[in-house]
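Entry type: protein chain
Record version: 2
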Amino acid sequence: MVGHYRTQTHPWIWYAPSSRRSSCSAPRPGFGSIRVSVTLGGSTWLTSIFPDSKSGTFLLPVKGSIRARERVAPGDVVGVSRKLLE
């Protein structure tokens, strides 16, 4: 599901997969982020996913340009494929 993640300065729009973290839960540098190639609809891009201790999943920030191109808004349920690059 696509949702909001609020920081002190501005909100982020992110995708939270329904599956929990698995073998990637070992400590990692860079806030525990993992480099990935992501496909959402017809858009593919390189980015990082970030662990979220509250949900036990990784969060995927989704840029405004991708959201506009794919017509994705907070609350939408979308399919995303991820390929680990590390």
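Comment: The domain at 2-84 is CATH 2.40.30 (Elongation Factor Tu (Ef-tu); domain 3).
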